[in-house]
Specification:
211 residues; mainly alpha; 2 domains; 8 helices; globular; disordered N terminus
Length: 211
């Protein structure tokens, strides 16, 4: 399989540790340290401009991420230690802001370096090969999962002609469960096929020379 052209060798090597350090800094910042959060947001804005990240694409991904982080903030907020001092609303908004900064930093990293060069950088930093391999195959086969989901939704629409197209929660949970089982079965078949072709756990496609 051909890989996308890699950026200069030191691009991912520099951006990866810098991003990890930034994420650790953000998530360890107390909610009461509002000035620090503002400074971290300014630093991220500078990085986004330097990486030439498309703002609309960044916003689109953040909106996709927002329901999950919003739900987590609402779940954690009532029991957070800073709630008596800051109030529930402030705690929820600050949790949302802090997690959003970390998420936007990771998206900026992937946009700047590209996914395959990022995996190469992870290998150079001695990240366990199992984790790198899992990320690689997720990237390589995510379209298969998307196609399977589309086929299931099309089959559902064909069997419920004339009914509302809105998915009820029990039906949605059933579809997710079936999709998970089909993905597991497909993954086992792919793994068996790889073993029959000499797979030894080494991602040789990540060992090529970088340009």
């Amino acid at each position: 399989m051909s890989l996308e052209p890699a950026p200069p060798r030191n691009t991912a090597d520099l951006w990866l540790p810098a991003t990890l350090a930034y994420v650790v800094l953000v998530v360890s910042t107390p909610l009461s340290a509002g000035r620090w959060m503002i400074a971290e947001a300014v630093l991220l804005a500078v990085a986004i401009v330097a990486a030439r990240t498309p703002i609309l694409e960044l916003l689109r991904r953040w909106l996709t991420f927002l329901p999950l982080v919003g739900f987590l903030a609402l779940t954690v907020g009532p029991g957070h230690p800073d709630r008596p001092k800051l109030g529930l609303t402030a705690v929820v908004l600050l949790l949302l802001a802090r997690n959003s900064l970390a998420f936007l930093a990771v998206i900026t990293l992937s946009t700047k370096t590209g996914f395959i060069p990022l995996l190469r950088a992870l290998r150079r930093f001695r990240v366990p090969s199992v984790l790198v391999g899992t990320l690689y195959f997720m990237y390589r086969y995510v379209h298969v999962l998307s196609d399977e989901r589309d086929r299931m939704l099309q089959a559902r629409r064909a069997r419920s002609f004339g009914r509302s197209s809105r998915l009820e929660w029990p039906l949605l949970a059933g579809l997710i469960a079936v999709l998970f089982l089909r993905s597991l079965e497909r993954g086992e078949r792919v793994h068996d096929a790889m073993l029959s072709r000499g797979w030894d756990g080494t991602l040789k496609t990540l060992d090529g020379p970088e340009t």
